[in-house]
Amino acid sequence: MRLTITLQSDEKINLPVNYNHMIQAMIYNVMDDPTFRAYLHEHGFELGKRSFKMFTFSWLMGKSVFEESTKRIIFEPPVKLVVCSPMNSIMRELGSGLLKKKYIRLGENLLQISEIATMNNDVNESRIRVKMLSPIVVYSTFEKPDQNKQTHYYSPFEERFNELVKQNLEKKYFIVYGENLSEDGFLIEPVKVGGRHFVITSYKNTWIKGWMGEYELRGNPKLLKLALDAGLGSKNSLGYGCCEVVQGK
């Protein structure tokens, strides 16, 4: 499911260029049940040694300018934020919490919640084209001979990229449906992706490499729906991997 939140303000919205942590904190704070909120934040949905929070969100969407002198981004209100999750419990808590509030705070900005729209990410085809609303992040961590760890971020043009996205989606599928996907076929292929779509962002002083752009997804419709609901790639709950279907493609 997808929530689109429209935020209004009497003043321009002034944020650091890397503001993902502010939106993530807002999402947790808005959730209605403090016990559920704490459990999701601290534990999430566990699978083996991994934990998945099972939600993702977009960059803020609206007119903006980058202020070079302060390294901040200035938005002209209104702005829209998309939050997606396949888990009814998360969307229920978030929706209920938002309906009880008139305002939310992002940094020093007090924003009015002017509209909340819901939409089911229904997929009935085995082939869709998606546009990233926040960067897709795909990586592996290796241990070097000196026992220090090194992270390699993959580009959509590397062969391993597709396999890691597929494995990640299959884990999310098991969490949602309680069973392994019976079909092997899945493909993510860059369609409108070039050098300008490569982005390096920072989350709490950690540099993260990702890619925007448009991609074609092929596979089981339930798996493609999950890609829309839970996000593509890793670090979804930090604000990465959110996407939407490109209409008419």
UniProtKB/TrEMBL annotation:
<dbReference type="InterPro" id="IPR049435">
    <property type="entry name" value="Cas_Cas6_C"/>
</dbReference>
<feature type="active site" description="Proton donor">
    <location>
        <position position="41"/>
    </location>
</feature>
<dbReference type="Pfam" id="PF01881">
    <property type="entry name" value="Cas_Cas6_C"/>
</dbReference>
<keyword id="KW-0051">Antiviral defense</keyword>
<keyword id="KW-0694">RNA-binding</keyword>
<dbReference type="GO" id="GO:0003723">
    <property type="term" value="F:RNA binding"/>
</dbReference>
<dbReference type="Pfam" id="PF21350">
    <property type="entry name" value="Cas6_I-A"/>
</dbReference>
<comment type="function">
    <text>CRISPR (clustered regularly interspaced short palindromic repeat), is an adaptive immune system that provides protection against mobile genetic elements (viruses, transposable elements and conjugative plasmids). CRISPR clusters contain sequences complementary to antecedent mobile elements and target invading nucleic acids. CRISPR clusters are transcribed and processed into CRISPR RNA (crRNA).</text>
</comment>
<feature type="active site" description="Proton acceptor">
    <location>
        <position position="28"/>
    </location>
</feature>
<comment type="similarity">
    <text>Belongs to the CRISPR-associated protein Cas6/Cse3/CasE family.</text>
</comment>
<dbReference type="GO" id="GO:0051607">
    <property type="term" value="P:defense response to virus"/>
</dbReference>
<feature type="domain" description="CRISPR associated protein Cas6 C-terminal">
    <location>
        <begin position="124"/>
        <end position="245"/>
    </location>
</feature>
<feature type="site" description="Transition state stabilizer">
    <location>
        <position position="53"/>
    </location>
</feature>
<dbReference type="GO" id="GO:0016788">
    <property type="term" value="F:hydrolase activity, acting on ester bonds"/>
</dbReference>
<dbReference type="InterPro" id="IPR010156">
    <property type="entry name" value="CRISPR-assoc_prot_Cas6"/>
</dbReference>
<dbReference type="InterPro" id="IPR045747">
    <property type="entry name" value="CRISPR-assoc_prot_Cas6_N_sf"/>
</dbReference>
<protein>
    <recommendedName>
        <fullName>CRISPR-associated endoribonuclease</fullName>
    </recommendedName>
</protein>
